[in-house]
Amino acid sequence: MHIKQLSLSVCFILLFSLTIQAQTYDFLKSDTTDSNKTMPRQIFGQTKVHWGGHFSTGVDGLEEVENNYFSALELRVGWKGYGRKKWQELFGYPSYGFGLYQATFYPEANILGSPSAVYGFFNAPFKRYNKWSLNYDLGVGLAYDFFGYDPKENPDQTAIGSEFNVYFTVSVEGQFKISRRLDGTAGLLFTHFSNGRTRTPNKGVNLYGLDLGVKYNFNGYVPKKGGRSLKKDQDPRVKTIQYDLPEFQPFWEYYVFGAGGWSTSPYDIEDREKYYGVATIGMDVARHYSYKGKFGLGIDIFRDGSLVEEYQSQYPNGVPNSKLWYAGIHVSHELLVHRFTLVTQVGVPFMNVEGRGGWYARVGGRYDLTRKIFAHLALKTPGGFIADFVEWGIGFRMYGKKGPNM
C-alpha cells in the first residue's frame, strides 16, 4: 500500500475539518422550530459580475481564447438563514438559493463557446466583524452552450467533448452593508467545467478571477399569513436567533452503498459511441464528532470497464474480467448540512492498477431520503484530479448503540 500517500491524505482531511464542527440526523432533519410556518422568510436578489482569465488546457486550438480574458454575469435569488432552523446557527447563518450564469469568452467567435449555467449556491461566513464578514461561496449546477469536440465539425477543440457539463464555482469574498436594503460583495473566484468523463475528451475548462456583487434585501414575509410582507419601514435583515444547544454526544455510524455509471475511453476521442460500464460498492464506519460532521474509514470495490484499454496490449486475446476489478481503502470527512452531506475521501488501492495512479479521491454529495436510506452522487478521480467516472447510487446506514434517539 502507498502509506506515504495515505498519510498525506489523512493530514489533508484533518486540516480541512478544523474549520468546521458536525450534526445528527434527528437534530437537523426533525427540526420543528418553525413547523407552524409563522416565522418570516428573508429573501434577497443579487447580481454579480466576474472578470478574469483562463488556466491553460494545453490545447493548441484554444490558445487565442485562453490568452484573452473572460467576463460573466450572475443573477441570484436566495434565502437568508437567520435561525429559523437550528442548523442555520451552526453554519453562522448562511444564505442559499438558485442562480443563472452567463459567461463570455473572447473573441466571441471561438471554437469553445460561451457557457451558461443554472445552479444552486450556498454562502456562509468564515468570520463576522462589526461592519462586514468574510464568506465562502459554493455553487454547483448544469452548464450548457459549449461547442463540444466533434471529429468533423469541431476537431481542434479537444478540451471538452460535451455541450452540457457540470458547473462548479468557489469564491472567498467580503460582504459589507451599503444601505438599509443593499449589501455589497467583492472576492476572488475559481470556476470549473467538466463532464466527469461521460464524454471524451474531458480536460475541463478552468477560470480564475474577481467578482463584484450587489444584493437587494426584500421585506420578509410570513407564509402562515398568506404571504403577507412585514412592515415596509422594518429593517429587512431579520435579527438572528441564538439557541441553547444541548451538548453533543459522539456516536458511531455504519453504512454501505452501491453505485453505477458509465465512462468513455481515456484515450480514444474519435469513437463517440464507445462507453464502458462502471460500478462501486463501498462500506464505511464513521464517527460523528459534533453536530456538523464525521470522520470515517472505508473499503471500496470498483469495477471499471474502461480498464480494458489499459491491459489490452498485455492480453491480445482478450482482457480477463478479473483485471477490471480492484479494491482500496479510504479515509473520509463528511460535512452535514440539513439533509445534505458533502463527502470528501482519499484512498489508495490494495494493488497496482494500470493507468490509475497510486491513489484516488472521491468528492460528492448525499441526500437523506429517510433516516437510514440515502441517495449518493459523487465523482471518483484516479491519481490526481482528472475525472475517472461519476457514481450514481443509493445506500443504507445503521447507528451504534449511542446513536441519535437510541
TrEMBL record:
Name the InterPro entries on file.
Lipid-A_deacylase-rel
Q: Which domain of life is it from?
A: Bacteria
Record keywords, A-Z: Hydrolase, Signal
Q: Name one GO molecular function term.
A: hydrolase activity
Which Pfam families has this protein been placed in? PagL
> Where would one find the signal peptide in this protein?
1-22
State the name under which the record lists this protein.
Acyloxyacyl hydrolase
